[in-house]
Amino acid sequence: MTEIVALAHCYETITSTVALRREDGHDRRVMSDHARERRMVGIRPLVLGLLTVPVFGLAACSGGGEDGASTEASRGSGAGSQRPSPALPSFKGKTYDAVSGELRRSWPAYTTAYRALPDGHLFDGESYSGTWIVCTQVEDSQARKVEFGFLPPQVPCPPDGRVTTWPVVPNFVGTTGNEAKQAALQFGFPLVSSQPLVTEGYDDSSHLERTVCTQDPPAGQSMRLHYGTTLDLRVADSKGSCTP
């Protein structure tokens, strides 16, 4: 601002001052009106140009301030939009029964969802789900909601929660019904049904001590869609035959 005032004062002085020179004892005007006008023509653009530079500089500074403020504001809004920190501890690696019980006791205000990762099914009290393991946990602490993703204990939790390789249904044919039932319960079948391949008289017992002749689902199928389902066995007749 000091430079602007000085330039303006200079311009006013040049346009209003008449230089005097003393020559031969007489005062006479040195600068004629015509000469003065020619000088002013050259000086005006220079002064105006010098006046313009600080103005543009101020405008540029003003614009930079606004950009800086906008940047800070955008940064502030970005920080405000970040997901809030979780309020719950990590339950990964714990069973469904352990997690559901702890949430009911310590965080009763939370809305919870328990989802089976194999097919996306939401658990609603199935008995088989009690031993399934938490692999994923997504929480919204502001809304007080949390969703857990579970896998059966036979399937290791992958780092990203996405299972690409599933176990297959074992082959129970040739074993006894009791052996097949014990293995199936540990493998992910919560229920095992059995009946003789040929019903003899009024004998409607399961006869799990007999040899397994057929099974459903068959051996080799992916367990992805069979966790929590029933394994159906057909066992031999009283003579040990699997032929109807």
How does this structure look, described?
The protein is built from four helices and eight strands, in the order H-E-E-H-H-E-E-E-H-E-E-E. Helix 1 (2-16) runs antiparallel to helix 2 (33-80). The chain has helices at 2-16, 33-80, 96-106, 177-187; strands spanning 20-23, 26-29, 111-116, 133-140, 145-151, 191-196, 212-216, 230-235. The strands form three sheets. Strands 3-5-4 form a three-stranded mixed beta sheet, with no helix packed on it. It has a three-stranded mixed beta sheet with strand order 6-8-7, with helices on one face. Residues 3-8, 14-41 and 43-81 have low confidence and may be disordered. It is of the alpha/beta class and 244 residues long.
Shape: elongated
Number of helices: 4
Average pLDDT level: 73
- Radius of gyration using CA atoms only: 45 Å
What is the first-to-last residue Cα distance?
110 Å
Percentage of residues assigned to helices: 25-40%
Reported for the largest beta sheet, the result is: 3 strands, mixed
User: Can you list the strand order of the major beta sheet?
Assistant: 3-5-4
In terms of structural class, how would the helical and strand content be classed? alpha/beta
> Could you name the ranges where pLDDT drops below 50 across 5 or more consecutive residues?
3-8, 14-41, 43-81
H and E order:
HEEHHEEEHEEE
Total strands: the figure is 8
> What proportion of the residues form beta strands (DSSP E)?
15-25%
